Amino acid sequence: MPSNFAPLKNDTFLKALLRQPTEYTPLWLMRQAGRYLPEYCATRKRAGSFLGLAKNPDYATEVTLQPLERYPLDAAILFSDILTVPDAMGLGLYFAEGEGPKFERPLRDEKAVMALQTPQEGSLQYVFDAVTQIRGALNGRVPLIGFSGSPWTLACYMVEGGGSDDFRTVKTMLYNRPDLMHHILRTNAAAVAAYLNAQIEAGAQAVMIFDTWGGVLADGIYQQFSLAYMREVLGQLKREHAGEKIPAIVFTKGGGLWLEQIADSGADAVGLDWTVNLGQARARVGHKVALQGNLDPNVLFAGPDQIRTEVEKLLNSYGTPSAGNGHVFNLGHGISQFTPPESVTVLVEAVHSFSRRQRG
């Protein structure tokens, strides 16, 4: 890691993840660098495509910093895509107009599955270059989050060949040929652990595992095919680098049912979607992990007064902060591309000001 990174000026986010006292509740937003910002749309147009944006460290740096120029957020998150890893495994990622990500060579039979290997060295260098460049450009303003999809979530795209409404293909393989599914998940877990560790070495100060599709699994199956492999990844992560602690966040969308088990996975913090009561979640996990979340992203389509009311309800639900407890404010999933940018201004101001008042 380059040793010339500037010292951190605002470490509130990292402190909250480690359940240390903070002066206010820090916040960042999933998908904060995205299509709701006109400046992002302008840069994406210049890049020519989504992959043109994600695979160019200069553009990735530019769009990562855009929301921080506009809002006093407490963390930056690397601009990238969870599908960079399967793309580097040779599945041929492309984006179909209006359809989202697709793979040219999905894993549909035993031959394809058994041929699967972790990415070759150098195939994801553009991501690590972006991490180092962003960390330098942040100049210590706020910490930088690196991330990956979970082994199960990546497998969903790799087997389905893209997004899915019913996950029929991947679940058919899971139930019919669990041996093949475990082979994919083992390979993915090794790839994800190496990928996150390389981001940490490049300058990421916290990492997050997005288990976007964990919630589509049945109870019992989730533990075996998603949680077990995230645990495997967490067990291999560098949790300290260059004298800094590197916290890890796990987020299973639809995973509220399994909160206690996720809190036992080895993560420092658990992300929650909006279906979970934050106060009850805090009672359920105790002092084990910090919590991140969990405002419904659609609240941002309401008026300013309603946004403030919902923010206060959520912060009151978490309860008065005390030493050793951590809360990072976030949405329960990614911000919608249709969100008015001025609604985010209201949100950030409300979280910062009300959480300071809470601490009296």
TrEMBL record:
Localization annotation: Cytoplasm
Binding locations of substrate: 31-35, 81, 157, 212, 333
Species: Noviherbaspirillum album
Database matches in HAMAP family: URO_D
Subunit description: Homodimer.
Domain of life, per lineage: Bacteria
Gene Ontology molecular-function annotations: uroporphyrinogen decarboxylase activity
Name the UniProt record assigns to this protein: Uroporphyrinogen decarboxylase
Keywords: Cytoplasm, Decarboxylase, Lyase, Porphyrin biosynthesis
Site (Transition state stabilizer): 81
Pathway where this protein functions: Porphyrin-containing compound metabolism; protoporphyrin-IX biosynthesis; coproporphyrinogen-III from 5-aminolevulinate: step 4/4
Keyword Lyase: yes
Annotated SUPFAM superfamilies: UROD/MetE-like
Annotated EC: 4.1.1.37
Domain Uroporphyrinogen decarboxylase (URO-D): 26-35, 145-161
Protein family according to the UniProt entry: Belongs to the uroporphyrinogen decarboxylase family.
Keyword Lyase: yes
PROSITE patterns: UROD_1, UROD_2
Function: Catalyzes the decarboxylation of four acetate groups of uroporphyrinogen-III to yield coproporphyrinogen-III.
Catalytic activity line of the entry: uroporphyrinogen III + 4 H(+) = coproporphyrinogen III + 4 CO2
